[in-house]
Amino acid sequence: MRHLTTALAVGVTVTLTAAAWDPTPVSPPAASVKVQPGASKGTGALTPIASADRLIAPLGVDPACPAKLLIGMRSDAKKARFATMSVEIDQPLSASRSMLSSYLPPGAEVRAKLLVAVPPDTKEGEYGLRLRAPAQTLSVPVEVVPVDRLDNGGNLALQRPVTASSQHLNANYPPCSVADGDRSSNGWAGGNGWNDATSRAWPDTVAIALGGARQISRVDLYTLDTERYPASTYGLRDWDVQAQVDGQWRTVAQVRGNTAGSARSDFEPVSADAVRIVALASNGANDYTRIIEVEVR
Ligand SMILES: [Ca+2]
After folding, report:
1. Mean pLDDT across the stretch 39-51?
2. Taking residues 224-240, what's their average pLDDT?
3. Which of 35, 80, 137, 235 has a CA between 20 and 30 Å from the CA of residue 293?
4. Are 141 and 117 in contact (CB under 8 A)?
5. What does DSSP say about strands 55-59 and 142-146: parallel, antiparallel, or unpaired?
6. Ligand 1 centroid, distance to 223 Cα (angstroms)
7. Each residue of 74-96: pLDDT tens digit?
8. Where is each F5/8 type C domain found (predicted)?
9. Gap between the Cα atoms of 17 and 90, Å rounded
10. Is the pLDDT of residue 258 over 70?
11. Is the pLDDT of residue 188 over 70?
């Protein structure tokens, strides 16, 4: 019994210590709705807004990493008002919200993230997404494109299947987020970066299948790096870059002592089916692997 008590006490101590300095388990997901102040034009208009005039929704990607954009409304009323907008999307696509409502001071804008899910059997083509305020509707066409025909800008990893050694479950850290095309650390814990589940245990791995043999010679890795969570304290420090050649993993580059938000590795061209990051250590507390994006060229 004494042995059991000691073991429990040690367990509790470790847990509390980790919670005190580790940002990962205690970070809430990024706020989904934000209101920003502004100056009203006094026209009374309530204008739907979107962060893009069209949305590319890749077909066949992991549902944990859906296409997304920011939507919102701007009020040019003279007085504060309660504003509501509906969100309509053509079947079989689905949107993460059907409505956006907010109290809006004059001139203020409300913004929210909208996720668009594409079922696997969706036909490619253009689909309608409409943001409908009482007197104005904004259309944002959604273009469903198979990953093989996506304009990847030369990044062979973009939207390709990702597997990882583990995944932290306290918030939204899906492995596919390292190939979603978003390098920004903003919105950490909200689906834009991978955090492994094994604190202070190494190595951790994340692998990206390239959809067939591809000639590659460069990998760029983006690790967590914000004002609040700088890479020099929370980012990845040491890792190997591996290429899968004829079914075998081959180390093609090594990064040691990194303290920056990103690092580029160049190597002799190889024909590879997949790329794997073997994470060996992180900075500061050396606790978790946190990767925002991996790009392969
Ligand atoms: Ca990302």
Report:
1. 95
2. 96
3. 35
4. no
5. parallel
6. 10
7. 999 999 999 999 999 999 999 99
8. 144-297
9. 49
10. yes
11. yes
Q: How close is the Cα of 186 to the center of ligand 1, in Å?
A: 10
Determine what percent of the chain is predicted with pLDDT higher than 70.
89
Distance 10 CA to ligand 1 centre (A): 36
What angle (nearest 5°) sits at the alpha carbon of residue 245, between those of residues 154 and 247? Answer: 125
Residues with CB under 5 A from ligand 1 (ion): 177, 180, 182, 192, 292-293
Q: What is the DSSP letter of 149?
A: G
Q: How far is the CA of 58 from the centre of ligand 1 (A)?
A: 15
pTM: 0.84
Domains in the chain, ordered, with CATH?
A: 33-149 (2.60.40.10), 162-296 (2.60.120.260)
- Separation of CA 175 and ligand 1 centre (Å): 9
Closest CA to 269 of 218, 208, 212: 218
Burial of 62 (0-12, 13-18, 19+ CB in 10 A): middle
Helix (H, G, I), strand (E, B) or coil at 15: helix
pLDDT in tens, 115-141: 999 999 999 999 999 999 999 999 999
Distance of CA 172 from the midpoint of ligand 1 (Å): 12
- Cross-strand pairs, 188: none
pLDDT digits (tens, 9 = 90+) for 10-33: 333 333 333 334 444 434 444 578
What is the model's pLDDT at position 31?
54
Report residue 231 as tokens: 């890479």
| Cα of 99 from ligand 1 centre, angstroms | 26
Selection from 32, 114, 108 nearest residue 77 by Cα? 108
**Quick check: 288 pLDDT over 50?**
yes
Handedness of CA 205, 209, 215, 218 (dihedral sign): negative
